[in-house]
């Protein structure tokens, strides 16, 4: 039996290694599949450097870089093209290119002389994305093993569901985004918990607690925003939307707090069922006390995680505003009002998930006692 398991492991690792190598080979030789010209940089030279300083005293350097590159596809495949790149030391809206970089380019229609010239449109990043993706998959499989594999499957399925829900909303004026996301949240919860943790009372308790807490959090957020008329929320970053941005924000709150609530619910459910399985005679009061002790331990860390996750997205804009001498209050309100609201509502969901998750798990434990 052990020999068979070892053989299966070796076979799986071999298959995985082949997949990794094949995918990396593919993304480094797939230039012919693109319609846009792709050029690989062979040499670079800085031809001009300019010192700059704005009215607030921010200093920067701007460089002009001349590049030689070889076209990898199209009718000019194999020919050399000359490119010019302007970038700054800060790299705020640009970047420096080095030999080996592959770039999407536009070839000049009216060429002067025998050498091709053109402009840089973008960087071909599929190799780096593939490396990061495989690193994530391998770490997940190494640590999680079978459950890690199921987690990958659920992640892919959930991504497809979210994509379908957003596509249905965008292609129909009659579908509410909040309704589409609510259906998606129910499916996310069922698929994620049932596939990873199996069909059992522990999972059922986590599913029920997750859905109750998530929709209660949405209701509380809706009531608060409704009665305060959204005062203090700065929707400027969402003004470009052609759909009601308040509804988009509420849908984001719904989906955003789901992950934290689900994590708390399954942690508490697993802990309470673990205590019951080790000691079937344990009292309900002991389960309740242990559940709240565990909940208190994870409450602080989970709320901090939510805070850092949401706030981290605003750090680049905070730096930009501060560097341009914007007042502190204006900078924070402009960039963090929505993120702080998301973090606070997620924190409410986490706090609600503790008592609801505990009592839901205890209910299923007591039901199992009666049936066993």
Could you please describe the fold and organization of this structure?
This protein is α+β, with helices and mostly antiparallel strands. α5 (245-278) runs antiparallel to α6 (284-312). Strands 1-2-3-5-4 form a five-stranded mixed β-barrel. A hairpin with a 5-residue loop joins β1 and β2. The model has no long low-confidence stretch (mean pLDDT 85). The chain has helices at residues 2-28, 126-170, 177-197, 201-228, 245-278, 284-312, 315-323, 328-371, and strands at 38-53, 59-71, 80-88, 102-107, 116-123.
List the helices and strands and how they pair.
Elements: H1 2-28, E1 38-53, E2 59-71, E3 80-88, E4 102-107, E5 116-123, H2 126-170, H3 177-197, H4 201-228, H5 245-278, H6 284-312, H7 315-323, H8 328-371
Parallel strand pairs: 3-5
Antiparallel strand pairs: 1-2, 1-4, 2-3, 4-5
Helix pairs in contact: 1-2, 2-3, 3-4, 3-5, 4-5, 4-8, 5-6, 5-8, 6-8, 7-8
Label this structure with key terms.
372 residues; alpha+beta; 5-stranded mixed β-barrel; 8 helices; 64% helix; globular
Largest sheet: 5 strands, mixed, barrel
Number of helices: 8
Oligomer: single chain
Q: How much β-strand is present in the residues?
A: 5-15%
User: What low-confidence regions span 5 or more consecutive residues with pLDDT below 50?
Assistant: none
Overall pLDDT level: 85
Structural class: alpha+beta
Tell me the strand order in the biggest sheet. Answer: 1-2-3-5-4
Instruction: Provide the succession of SSEs.
Output: HEEEEEHHHHHHH
Beginning-to-end CA distance, first to last residue: 33 Å
Q: Summarize the amount of helix as a percent range.
A: 55-70%
Question: What is the CA-atom radius of gyration, in angstroms?
Answer: 27 Å
